[in-house]
């Protein structure tokens, strides 16, 4: 260890206690939850950290959405309890729960029968990503951009109300 | 009328070419004009009487492919089969098209796999005569058109079964159909490619079909390399076109073959009072049929059965090959989709690790790295690598299955050792992946059997198609179900194989149809019938017997049979009970 130049341990960084952005990861695959958590662990946007919520099915996703209106982003898988479970949840979130603010990013391994542009046209979603093309940087970028959108939407609706 | 067609088109080239044939002892690969030979065979290749133009299914397919590949060609036409054949064999002409594969011509085929489509011959009768088997024709007058292939085959067929009948020869189909209408003959023979309805509305194709055969093209054994190359191009392109339902192969197929339809409208109105007489006549005939049926000896039945099996086998092969490709393609696509998640997670983990290493390096170079940060990095890296490894393993496992599938496909004739029940589990896993939304359980009741030097692809195809049928049809509209596979070596040293599901079952109509050998030739792709025909085709090669189908509408499907394995099986009692079948 003699050659290794280590600097002294810094004082523990103050944990970011600002109110976090809430991101809901909906996927039936445990690996996806793990890797998303690892990538986004140290993520901050405008000095606010992230809080990740996990759902393993569309049903669970809807339950969380009902109880937690502050979710900023859903990273949504398509194939869960059924072949189209994820996408089926989208109109419920938008129309029944009347949540038009949450940014829905569909992240799937299977394109299924419909083409990507069909899905984008048919469902009120904000982004569509293929699982095999999401590396660390892209995932961070996608989340950053979605949070920026969410922030602007929030600001706009607040201005409207005031 | 057809006689007008019998114009010999052999060009003056023959002299030049026959000289050329001797000069061709050393193979040349230089592209040159190749000669392709067509015989008069409606609708494969023939001269349209109205336009005087040469047309036909083979003719259009071949010339289109040759033009696609910019191959210069010359068309030779004649209705003298043997003359043309001999000239191709002697290399005077290069490629023979429209050659029909029959047992006596077996040695003519240098490129035996280049089949075009399945044809068969059948007997035509008046509407009232229910003709089901050759014995009914004993001592009857049967019309045969001279030089028509079906007639020759019918003569040898009847000879094979020792059934004497009275052949009456005619010069064309006009004559033979009017002879049938006049009652001079009770039936006549025609190949399935002849448009009998053009000649008569009163001749109906009977269900008795003989001599299934395939259309082929070929070149001589000692053709030069260029010709062989062209034959390969033709063959590959045809196979390629056949797998694509939208290709011109199928539009031409429809153009030439869909028109061959026999009108089966019973003309009750015209029959009027003579109808009563006909009823008496037909019941008389049916009584005769029944009494004759009894006279068929066991030996004849057995012989008939064997020959038919052999012939059906050839006929079914072509359609079956196509469906095999389709069912494997279905699975491959779903497994490829399944790869996305593990590969995606692995990719994210490794890019995350890269990102962390870069930050670490930067901090270290700037002397900003603390011990705590280094330890955190180790911790996070371990986590990332665990995830990476786990997901790469998952991907590797999927590839292994994919490899298994493609191996079964490409090495259709591969001979190797394989073991059940493992074998069934592997197929099950790959099928289950496609239908993972359904909760279907597999129940295996299987002896431990090692098949030595066997062809796993056949057993694979049978099992795969059972499972696909169960999932696609049996469990359609259901979320759960059970599949039972039993494979046992019984006391008589035979293999008992049973497949069962508790799904929807099949309608009685479908059950009847799956046993019809030519059922598949008229059905759209994707129909159950094709899957079942693969199964029956392969079971025939296994010489399966005692085939029992139990079908309960709404309550499942079960098929069982016995496959003779004779003395090829050995029982090993060491360790656990195990059989070896060689």
Question: What's the structural blueprint in terms of helices and strands?
Answer:
The complex is a heterodimer of chains A (162) and B (582).
Chain A: E1 21-26, H1 30-40, E2 44-45, E3 48-55, H2 58-67, E4 71-76, H3 85-96, E5 103-108, H4 116-122, E6 127-130, H5 136-161
Parallel strand pairs in A: 1-3, 1-4, 4-5, 5-6
Antiparallel strand pairs in A: 2-3
Helix pairs in contact in A: 2-3
Chain B: H1 13-23, E1 34-39, E2 46-47, E3 54-55, H2 57-68, E4 73-78, H3 81-89, E5 95-101, E6 115-125, E7 141-145, H4 149-160, E8 166-170, H5 173-182, E9 187-191, E10 204-219, H6 225-243, H7 248-257, H8 268-271, H9 274-295, H10 298-338, H11 340-365, H12 371-410, E11 416-420, H13 422-434, E12 439-446, E13 449-454, H14 456-474, E14 480-489, E15 494-501, H15 508-514, H16 528-541, E16 545-552, E17 556-564, E18 569-572, E19 578-581
Parallel strand pairs in B: 1-4, 1-5, 7-8, 7-9, 12-14, 13-19
Antiparallel strand pairs in B: 2-3, 5-10, 6-9, 6-10, 11-13, 14-15, 15-17, 16-17, 18-19
Helix pairs in contact in B: 2-6, 10-12, 10-13, 10-16, 11-12, 13-14, 14-16
Describe the protein's architecture and organization.
The complex is a heterodimer of chains A (162) and B (582). Chain A has helices at residues 30-40, 58-67, 85-96, 116-122, 136-161, and strands spanning 21-26, 44-45, 48-55, 71-76, 103-108, 127-130. The mean pLDDT of chain A is 86. Helices cover 41% and strands 20% of the residues of chain A. Chain A is built from 5 helices and 6 strands, in the order βαββαβαβαβα. Chain B is extended, with a radius of gyration of 31 Å. With 582 residues, chain B is of the alpha/beta class. Classes of the chains: A alpha/beta (162), B alpha/beta (582). At the A-B interface, helix 1 and helix 5 of A face helix 11 and helix 12 of B.
List keywords for this structure.
heterodimer, A: about 160 residues, alpha/beta, 6-stranded mixed sheet, about 20% strand, globular, B: about 575 residues, 8-stranded mixed sheet, 5-stranded mixed sheet
């Amino acid at each position: 260890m003699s050659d290794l130049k280590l600097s002294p341990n810094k004082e523990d960084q103050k944990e970011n206690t600002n109110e976090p952005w809430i991101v809901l990861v909906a996927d039936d695959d445990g690996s996806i939850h793990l890797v998303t958590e690892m990538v986004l662990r140290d993520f901050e946007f405008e000095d606010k950290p992230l809080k990740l919520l996990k759902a393993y099915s569309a049903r669970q996703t809807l339950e969380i959405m009902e109880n937690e209106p502050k979710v900023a982003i859903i990273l949504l898988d398509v194939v869960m309890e059924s072949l189209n479970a994820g996408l089926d949840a989208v109109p419920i979130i938008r129309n029944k729960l009347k949540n038009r603010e949450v940014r829905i990013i569909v992240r799937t391994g299977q394109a299924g029968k419909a083409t990507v542009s069909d899905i984008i046209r048919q469902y009120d979603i904000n982004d569509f990503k293929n699982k095999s093309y999401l590396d660390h940087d892209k995932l961070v970028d996608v989340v950053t951009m979605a949070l920026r959108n969410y922030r602007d939407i929030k600001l706009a609706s607040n201005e409207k109300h005031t | 009328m057809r006689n007008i067609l019998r114009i010999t088109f052999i060009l003056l080239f023959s002299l030049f070419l026959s000289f050329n044939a001797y000069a061709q002892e050393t193979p040349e690969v230089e592209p040159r004009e190749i000669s392709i030979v067509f015989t008069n065979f409606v609708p494969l290749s023939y001269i349209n009487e109205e336009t005087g133009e040469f047309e036909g299914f083979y003719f259009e397919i071949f010339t289109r492919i040759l033009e696609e590949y910019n191959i210069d060609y010359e068309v030779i036409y004649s209705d003298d089969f043997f003359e043309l054949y001999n000239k191709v064999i002697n290399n005077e002409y290069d490629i023979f098209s429209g050659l029909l594969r029959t047992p006596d011509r077996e040695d003519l085929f240098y490129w035996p796999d280049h089949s075009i489509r399945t044809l068969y011959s059948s007997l035509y009768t008046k509407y009232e005569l229910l003709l089901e088997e050759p014995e009914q024709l004993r001592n009857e007058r049967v019309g045969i058109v001279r030089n028509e292939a079906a007639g020759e085959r019918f003569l040898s067929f009847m000879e094979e079964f020792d059934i004497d009948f009275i052949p009456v020869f005619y010069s064309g189909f006009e004559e033979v159909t009017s002879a049938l209408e006049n009652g001079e003959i009770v039936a006549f023979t025609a190949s399935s490619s002849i448009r009998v309805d053009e000649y008569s509305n009163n001749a109906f194709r009977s269900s008795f079909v003989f001599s299934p055969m395939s259309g082929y093209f070929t070149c001589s054994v000692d053709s030069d390399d260029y010709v062989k190359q062209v034959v390969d191009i033709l063959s590959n392109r045809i196979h390629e076109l056949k797998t694509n339902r939208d290709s011109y192969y199928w539009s031409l197929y429809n153009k030439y073959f869909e028109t061959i339809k026999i009108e089966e409208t019973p003309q009750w109105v015209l029959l009027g009072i003579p109808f009563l007489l006909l009823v008496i006549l037909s019941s008389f005939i049916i009584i005769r049929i029944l009494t004759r049926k009894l006279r068929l000896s066991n030996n004849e039945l057995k012989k008939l059965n064997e020959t038919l099996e052999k012939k059906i086998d050839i006929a079914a092969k072509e359609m079956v090959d196509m469906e095999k490709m389709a069912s494997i393609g279905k699975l491959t696509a779903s497994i490829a989709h399944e790869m996305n998640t593990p590969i995606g997670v692995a990719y994210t983990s490794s890019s995350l690790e890269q990102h962390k290493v870069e930050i670490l390096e930067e901090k270290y170079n700037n002397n900003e790295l603390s011990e705590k940060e280094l330890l955190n990095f180790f911790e996070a890296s371990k986590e990332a690598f665990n995830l990476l490894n786990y997901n790469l393993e998952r991907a590797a496992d999927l590839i292994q299955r994919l490899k298994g599938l493609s191996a079964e496909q490409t090495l259709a004739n591969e001979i190797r050792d394989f073991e059940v029940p493992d074998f069934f589990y592997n197929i099950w896993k790959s099928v289950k992946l496609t239908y993972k939304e359904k909760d279907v359980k597999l129940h295996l009741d299987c002896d431990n059997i090692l098949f030595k030097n066997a062809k796993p692809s056949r057993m694979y195809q049978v099992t795969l198609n059972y499972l696909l049928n169960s999932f696609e049809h049996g469990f359609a509209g259901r979320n759960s179900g059970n599949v039972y596979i039993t494979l046992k070596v019984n006391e008589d040293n035979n293999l008992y194989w049973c497949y069962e599901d508790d799904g929807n079952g099949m309608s009685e109509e479908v059950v009847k149809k799956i046993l019809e050998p030519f059922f598949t030739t008229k059905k759209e792709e994707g129909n159950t019938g094709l899957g079942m025909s693969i199964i029956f085709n392969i079971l025939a090669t296994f010489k399966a017997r005692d085939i029992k189908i139990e079908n309960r509408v709404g309550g499942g499907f079960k098929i069982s049979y016995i496959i003779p394995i004779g003395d090829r099986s050995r029982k090993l009692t060491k360790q656990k009970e195990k059989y070896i079948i060689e």
